[in-house]
Amino acid sequence: MIETRVVAADDPRAVSQALAVLRAGGLVAFPTDTVYGLGALAYNYQAVERLFKSKERSPSKAIAVLIGEIRQLSKVASQVTPAALFLARRFWPGALTLVVPGHPDLPRNLSPQPTIGVRMPDHAFASALLRRAGPLATTSANLSGGANPRNAQDVLAQLEGRVELIIDGGEAPGGIPSTVVDCTQDPPIILREGMIKEDAIQALFPRN
Q1: What is the DSSP pairing of strand 136-140 with strand 115-119?
Q2: How far apart are alpha carbons 142 and 120 in whole angstroms?
Q3: Triad 181, 184, 187: Cα angle to 5°
Q4: 117: buried, middle or exposed (CB in 10 Å: 19+, 13-18, 0-12)?
Q5: How far is Cα 104 from Cα 35, in angstroms, rounded to an integer?
Q6: Cα–Cα–Cα angle for 39, 136, 172, nearest 5°?
Q7: In angstroms, what CA-CA distances link 133 with 5, 33, 171, 199?
Q8: Among 40, 36, 74, which residue's Cα sits nearest to residue 157?
Q9: Cβ count within 10 A of residue 32
Q10: How far is CA 35 from CA 71, 102, 103, 179, in A?
Q11: Which residue, among 10, 57, 36, 58, has the nearest Cα to 155 in the 3D structure?
Q12: With contact defined as beta carbons under 8 Å apart, do 76 and 106 qualify?
């Protein structure tokens, strides 16, 4: 069993402690603008494996990547199309996930497909951590099939002994998930409507 520590998000050492855990190959749960996420360094194959095992998640299900700056998109995508960049600048940070061709150097266990979902969350702590850590493979901080974690106590109830660190940032908004847009198509295709409405995306790419 792993000792799971809980640190307040407003602790001045919270980001540095999270970085230390991540760089050692560990897992960190942290608040986002939707629910609490469970993250590992995106380029660490073994840490990504631990994400699957800690959540009891099927390896057939891809894990998305969170980033803290638009320029980090090139670290996880083999190609950033003008449409993808346009959408990122228009809606990030926020509830928009872009499906892009995965960077060839990303661990193969992140996704069974050649694509990867990427998002920049609109949350102060998550943004601060992601800017310093770089891209994080991130999934909801719960056991697969379990209730969505809205606070640190929800995470602890499901993942205590499975992760090294939980950042307690209070209650997460939860609610409506991100909108998912496939940017490997021209024009982009909405795969899932969420917080950002389909009409708002389609209006940006009028079809002839």
Answers
A1: unpaired
A2: 20
A3: 70
A4: buried
A5: 29
A6: 55
A7: 19, 18, 23, 34
A8: 36
A9: 25
A10: 24, 24, 26, 15
A11: 36
A12: yes
State the CB neighbour count (10 A cutoff) for residue 183.
25
State pLDDT tens for residues 128-156. 999 999 999 999 999 999 999 999 999 99
pLDDT given at position 206: 80
Q: Which of 22, 4, 46 is nearest to 136 (CA)?
A: 22
Whose tokens are 């060839």? That residue is: 104
User: 174's torsion region: left (phi>0), alpha (psi -120 to 50) or beta?
Assistant: left
- For the chain, give the number of residues: 208
Q: Are 149 and 36 in contact (CB under 8 A)?
A: yes
Label residue 189 by pLDDT band (50, 70, 90).
very high
How distant is the alpha carbon of residue 111 from its chain centre? 13
CA atoms within a 13 Å half-sphere pointing along the CA-CB vector of 34: 23
Q: Is the omega angle on the peptide bond into residue 121 within 30 degrees of 0, that is, cis?
A: no
DSSP 165: E
- Taking residue 186's Cβ as centre, other Cβ atoms within 10 Å add up to 10
Mean of pLDDT values over 50-72: 96
Tell me how far apart the alpha carbons of residues 2 and 9 are, in angstroms, rounded to a whole number.
21
Of 207, 208, 206, 204, nearest in space to 88 by CA = 204
Q: Which residue has the tokens 């494996």?
A: 49
Tell me the torsion sign for CA atoms 72, 75, 76, 77: positive
